[in-house]
Amino acid sequence: MMFLLHADSRSPTSPPPPFFDRLVLVLIHYVHFTQAHSTSWLALPNSFRYRSREQKNEELASTFNTIASIYGDEAALKMVKIQPSVLAFEKSNFQPSLDAFGETFGYEESKEMVIRNPGLLGSSPASAAGADDLTMQLSYVVAFTRPIGALGPATIIGLLCVPALESALGVGKGELFSALFG
Q1: What b/e readout covers 84-105, taking b as 16+ CB neighbours within 10 angstroms?
Q2: Whole-number Å distance between alpha carbons of 117 and 129
Q3: How many CB atoms lie within 10 A of CB 182?
Q4: pLDDT, position 165
Q5: How confident is the model over 68-114, as pLDDT tens digits?
Q6: pLDDT above 70 as % of the chain
Q7: Residues 6+ away with beta carbon under 8 Å from 119
Q8: Contact status, residue 87 vs residue 96, Cβ threshold 8 Å
């Protein structure tokens, strides 16, 4: 099942689009809104920034279709939900980067790694070829810490620093927490 989105293909009398098409259209409009109302859109290439709304919709839909053709429809939708900005990435790098990741980790493992961390879609083929085991490991960390929000990684790092603090302060194991929260 391939998503074929065309900006001008829907008339007011046509039936509503299927659920996934509607969701992708909502995500496309969300990307447009965030680009228009924040400073993050300044990072987009000029070739993308100064196009008409129809051209942007067509390009975003084409990028989504490219992701769906490589990773599958469900995985593409999942990646766009996680990180809508992937629709602004250079789609010509998607397959060559996946191939470069595949040489290091294996093709299927690389697909799963990119699905866990959609930011890797922005990798150039040259940087993907230089990926090491840390890239794979960090994809698990990104997938694990995403649901706990922005304070989650800071909390985890803070908890990992507790033994160092106890050692530096000369207190016994667990005494720091009992003194703070006891």
Answers
A1: bbbbbbebebbeebbebbbebb
A2: 17
A3: 7
A4: 79
A5: 999 999 999 999 998 888 998 999 999 999 999 999 999 999 999 99
A6: 68
A7: 83, 86, 142
A8: no
With residues binned 3-state (H G I as helix, E B as strand, rest as coil), the percentages for the chain, rounded to 5, are 75, 0, 25
Q: Name the CA radius of gyration of the chain, rounded.
A: 21
- What letter would DSSP give residue 3? -
pLDDT of residue 58: 85
Residue 2: pLDDT over 50: no
Q: Which of 138, 137, 30, 139 is nearest to 86 (CA)?
A: 30
Round to whole Å and give the CA distance between 60 and 68: 12
Task: Look at residues 92, 84, 7 and name the one whose alpha carbon lies nearest to residue 47.
Answer: 92
Q: Give the Cβ contact number of residue 181 at 10 Å.
A: 6
Q: Which residue has the tokens 């990684």?
A: 153
Give the CA dihedral 97, 98, 101, 105, nearest 10 degrees.
180
Q: Quick one: pLDDT at residue 116?
A: 94
């919709």: which residue's tokens? 57
